[in-house]
From TrEMBL:
Record key words, sorted: Signal
Source organism, top-level taxon: Bacteria
Signal peptide: 1-21
Protein name (database record): Outer membrane lipoprotein-sorting protein
């Protein structure tokens, strides 16, 4: 069940990333009456409702983006942190998905090292000024990231950062030396396409609120 939930979340987060990367003039797909009524509330109200469903002291400050998506039958809010930085011996929730229609929440934790666990409640990521400095160093070491829309996991270590990037077509990992910014131990693998066709009418797409009709 956890694997299935993780796959659902990853697929929807990637959908949200693609939506942000593309400028489209297309109208929203045909909406059911229930979805239409939800969307009339507006993006801010829908996002607030999704945050309330997550519970706790969670807020938009825990994420770098919030995207409302729909396939015409359901409304889904994708909360995302594109750059996921983790100190040593740390575990966080970075991305969360909330299905407004079914009141279902999907979330998946990321840890450093991979097998690190805790008996305490897993906290949500909080982007501090110190973390921004680590992320900035990594981005400068990599160089040109124009148009980069994939998720990047940055695991801190004593002398280096371990980087992991997964897109719908490729999986990459490498290390960056802290002292010099040198990139080494690179690994790249091309992923096989999804072995089944996705019906376009069932695909979740970012909602264009400016074209919602009353």
């Amino acid at each position: 069940m956890k694997i299935i939930t993780s796959l659902i979340l990853i697929l929807l987060m990637q959908t949200a990333a693609v939506c942000h990367a593309q400028q489209t003039q297309e109208k929203n797909p045909k909406m059911s009456k229930e979805v239409t009524e939800i969307l009339k509330l507006g993006k801010d109200a829908i996002v607030a409702s999704a945050l309330n469903s997550i519970g706790g002291s969670i807020s938009l400050e825990n994420f770098t983006s919030a995207t409302v998506l729909s396939n015409g039958e359901e409304v889904y809010v994708s909360f995302r942190n594109q750059y996921k930085y983790l100190p040593i011996n740390k575990i966080n929730y970075f991305d969360v998905g909330v299905n407004i229609t079914t009141q279902t929440t999907y979330k998946n934790s990321v840890a450093n090292p991979y097998n690190f666990t805790t008996e305490r409640a897993i906290p949500y990521f909080n982007l501090t000024e110190d973390i921004k400095k680590h992320i900035s160093f990594v981005k400068q070491a990599i160089g040109n990231l124009d148009g980069f829309e994939d998720d990047m996991i940055i695991r801190d270590n004593v002398d280096f950062y371990a980087i992991e990037v997964v897109s719908d077509a490729q999986e990459s990992s490498y290390k960056i030396k802290k002292k010099t910014g040198e990139i080494y131990d690179e690994f790249h693998a091309y992923l096989e396409p999804i072995p089944f066709d996705v019906d376009d009418s069932e695909e979740f797409k970012e909602v264009i609120f400016s074209v919602i009709e009353d």
